[in-house]
Write a structure and sequence with these properties.
The chain is mainly α. It has a single domain, classed as SMc04008-like (SMc04008-like fold, Orthogonal Bundle), CATH 1.10.3340.10.
Length: 100
Amino acid sequence: MDEKTRTEIEAQAFRDLVAHLRQRTDVQNIDLMNLAGFCRNCLSKWYAAAAEERGVTMDYEGAREIVYGMPYQEWKAKYQTEATEAQQKGFAKSHGEGGH
């Protein structure tokens, strides 16, 4: 496989992942962190870092809007629920008390 095709396939896979996460608003970031070790915010940070590496100005909030499909505060107000004690314990166990 040539480099251009690989990059196009990876880009489509990323777009499909983001579209899937936008559809699954029932899945909380803490659940993603507890099960997979990353969440929408991690994707946003990786996106912003990749843009900066290529000389494209991209702040974290702009990257979050790309991943969430709306401003983060709007998504949070619409879809984020209070973490349960079990979720918090799972997060502390897998990521330490300091968060991610």
